[in-house]
Specification:
The protein has 311 residues and is α/β, with parallel strands linked by helices. It contains nine helices and eight strands. It has one domain: Ureohydrolase domain (Arginase, Chain A). The protein has an eight-stranded parallel beta sheet, sandwiched between helices. The structure holds manganese (II) ion (MN).
C-alpha cells in the first residue's frame, strides 16, 4: 500500500471507507496514432494536483473534505481489450460500493470500459462526450478498443451527446446523430448552445472529457491537438450548469500527454478535475452521506461486491 494521497490531502480524508469520491488512474497508451505519452498523464496530473490550492473560490468550498480515495492505478497493458475489461470491472466494483467514481487516463479507449460500467449501473444513461474528435469508428487498426472507437459502443447503447467536435472521418457521418452533436464551429456562432445541449441530456449523465476538446492555446500537451477548441471559462460555465441541472453519476478525463517543458496543461487538467468535483458536491455538507443512486435492478442483482476489490 502506498501512502500517497490525492493532491497530498491528509490521510483522514483519503481512506476508502470514508471517502465519497474514488479516483482511478489508468496510465495506458497502447493505440494512439500520433504522439505517444498519454500513459504519463496520470502521474503528471497527480503531481500538478499536489501543487494546487484546495480551496475553490467560486463555490467557496474545499471539496477534498468529502473524501477522495486514490485507487491503485490500473496497470494492465497486454492488449486494448484486456485494458477495457479491467477498467470495466474495477469501475463497476467501486460504483457498487456507492462511491462517486472518477477516472483519469490514459488514452481515450479506456472510456469504453468506464462507460460500459456506468451504463450497466444507471438507468437511461446519457454520455456527454466532450472532444475534438468524433471517436465513432466501430473498429480501427483491427481493434474495437482503439482510441478512435471510444464512443462507438455508447452511440449504440446510450443517449450519446457530442460536443466540441471538429475532426472526423467521412465514415463516421453514418454513425453520428446530427441532432445530438454540437460541432465546435456551431458553438462559436450559436449564442445559446449551452441551453440546447443541457436540454438534450437525460437525468443521469456520465461525462467523458477528452482534453483535446480544449483549444491548443490553453491545452497544448495532448496527443492530437486541433485548432478551434473550447476555452476555460466557457467550459467551466457549461460544466457548472450541467452539474446543477442533472445527476452527474461520474466522469473520466483522458488524453493528457505531458511534456517536460510545458506544465500548464498538467495544471489545467488538475484544476478541471477539482472544479468538476467542486461542482458535484457544491452545497453538500461533508458530514452528509452519499448515495450514488445506481439503479434498483442493479441493487437486486448485487454480487458480494464488497469482497471483490483488490486493495
Ligand atoms: Mn480526441
Amino acid at each position: 500500500m502506498s501512502t500517497r494521497t490525492y493532491a497530498g490531502i491528509p490521510a483522514a480524508y483519503s481512506s476508502l471507507d470514508t471517502s465519497k469520491i474514488v479516483l482511478i488512474p489508468v496510465p495506458y497508451d497502447g493505440t494512439s496514432t500520433w504522439q505517444k505519452g498519454a500513459d504519463k498523464g496520470p502521474e503528471a496530473f497527480l503531481k500538478a494536483s499536489e501543487n494546487m490550492e484546495l480551496y475553490d473560490i467560486e463555490t467557496g468550498s474545499e471539496v477534498y473534505k468529502q473524501g477522495v480515495y486514490l485507487a491503485e492505478a490500473i496497470e494492465e497493458k497486454s492488449s486494448p481489450e484486456a485494458v477495457v475489461a479491467k477498467v470495466h470491472k474495477t469501475v463497476k466494483e467501486y460504483i457498487l460500493r456507492n462511491k462517486f467514481v472518477t477516472i483519469f487516463g490514459g488514452e481515450h479507449s479506456i472510456s469504453i470500459g468506464t462507460i460500459r460500467a456506468f451504463n450497466e449501473c444507471f438507468d437511461d444513461l446519457t454520455v456527454l462526450h466532450i472532444d475534438a474528435h468524433a471517436d465513432l469508428r466501430a473498429s480501427y487498426e483491427g481493434s474495437k478498443c482503439n482510441h478512435a472507437c471510444a464512443v462507438y459502443e455508447a452511440s449504440q447503447t446510450t443517449n450519446l451527446i457530442q460536443l466540441g467536435i471538429r475532426s472526423m472521418d467521412v465514415t463516421e457521418t453514418t454513425v453520428m446523430d446530427q441532432e445530438k452533436t454540437w460541432f465546435a464551429h456551431d458553438m462559436v456562432s450559436e449564442e445559446y448552445w449551452m441551453d440546447s445541449v443541457i436540454e438534450a441530456l437525460g437525468e443521469n449523465v456520465f461525462i467523458t472529457f477528452d482534453l483535446d476538446a480544449f483549444d491548443p492555446s490553453i491545452m497544448p500537451s495532448t496527443g492530437t491537438p486541433e485548432p478551434g477548441g473550447l476555452l476555460w471559462y466557457e467550459t467551466l460555465d457549461f460544466l457548472r450548469r450541467v452539474f446543477e441541472q442533472r445527476n452527474v453519476v461520474g466522469f473520466d478525463i483522458v488524453e493528457l500527454c505531458p511534456r517536460e517543458e510545458e506544465k500548464s496543461s498538467d495544471f489545467l487538467a488538475a484544476k478541471l478535475y477539482y472544479k468538476m468535483l467542486s461542482y458535484k458536491f457544491d452545497g453538500i455538507d461533508s458530514e452528509d452521506s452519499f448515495e450514488s443512486n445506481f439503479s434498483e435492478s442493479t441493487k437486486k442483482s448485487l454480487p458480494k461486491f464488497n469482497n471483490d476489490i483488490d486493495e
